[in-house]
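Hi V.,

Quick status before I head out on leave. The structure for the redesign project is tokenized and pasted below; the design run finished overnight.
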């Protein structure tokens, strides 16, 4: 049954549910879910939490990941993912959409939309994907002030501080920033764009007991590691931020190329989600059952 219609909707805030998952042994894996359908599919696959990437949100809107979108636009994505799946959602908060007061507004808006957690990064606008070149970093004390503002504003939100400093300041600089962010109120640290297993291990060794988040994005600077490998490095959370969007976009491009070339999509039918599969995923029958005025759908 779709989560929205279930009788098991928890009263516990999403952030507290995420903390309960993190209290369990092992690594918590959060696949990127760029819309409500992706979130439903992730839940059906057995994931206990999910991730909402800024790059995936902007790309799905036809925009680059340069800090262009607004808090309200992100909340639209949060609401659909959280409501569809019921899973705790970690949300990409970019640079916080401004300074301390803007960050506090973002935190409250994200909580109200249903987010369980947010991560903030220490770049300056216009920000870039963490795996690209020539990123401009904020002063670490300015970033710490944003973290402190977020910690003050939250009611339950789990707060992850992301540092992009490894590429320009080395691992020593990134760890120094992480320690500062932890003192400011961060619950976990996200060291972005580490480039080797040794770097991941060293970061964990020098921050003992701190929950660390690893980013396994494709086509980036980080080599491909499995969830088991990241856990062995000392990491507690793992995201695949844009994988769902990459797969969907590739298939969609092939569809349009086929339609343009042949005037029919019939050859692609075996690769399509069927009508029955779609209706089962979104719970059409359950919605119809709730409203007796809707005649039950019969599949053609």
């Amino acid at each position: 049954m779709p989560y929205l219609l279930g009788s098991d909707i928890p009263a516990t805030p999403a952030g507290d549910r995420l903390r309960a998952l993190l209290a369990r042994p092992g690594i918590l894996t959060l696949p990127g879910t760029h819309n409500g359908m992706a979130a439903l599919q992730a839940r059906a696959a057995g994931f206990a939490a999910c991730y909402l990437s800024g790059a995936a949100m902007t790309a799905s809107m036809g925009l680059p990941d340069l800090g262009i979108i607004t808090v309200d636009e992100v909340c639209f994505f949060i609401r659909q993912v959280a409501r569809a799946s019921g899973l705790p959602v970690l949300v990409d908060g970019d640079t916080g959409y401004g300074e301390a007061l803007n960050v506090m507004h973002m935190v409250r808006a994200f909580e109200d939309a249903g987010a369980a957690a947010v991560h903030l990064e220490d770049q300056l606008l216009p920000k870039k994907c963490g795996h690209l070149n020539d990123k401009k970093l904020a002063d670490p004390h300015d970033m710490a002030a944003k973290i402190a503002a977020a910690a003050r504003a939250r009611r339950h939100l789990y707060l992850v501080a992301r540092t992009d400093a490894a590429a320009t300041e080395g691992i020593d600089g990134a760890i120094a920033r992480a320690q500062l962010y932890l003192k400011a109120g961060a619950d976990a640290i996200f060291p972005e764009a580490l480039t080797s297993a040794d770097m991941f291990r060293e970061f964990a060794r020098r921050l003992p007991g701190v929950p660390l988040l690893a980013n396994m994005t494709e086509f980036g600077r980080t080599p491909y590691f499995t969830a088991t490998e990241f856990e062995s490095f000392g990491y507690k959370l793992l995201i695949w931020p844009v994988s769902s969007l990459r797969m969907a976009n590739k298939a969609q491009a092939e569809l349009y190329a086929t339609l343009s070339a042949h005037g029919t999509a019939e050859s692609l039918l075996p690769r399509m989600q069927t009508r029955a599969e779609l209706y089962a995923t979104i719970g059409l029958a359950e919605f119809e059952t709730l409203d007796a005025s809707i005649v039950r759908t019969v599949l053609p």
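Above is the designed sequence. The two ends are 22 Å apart (CA to CA).

G. will cover questions while I'm gone.

Best,
W.
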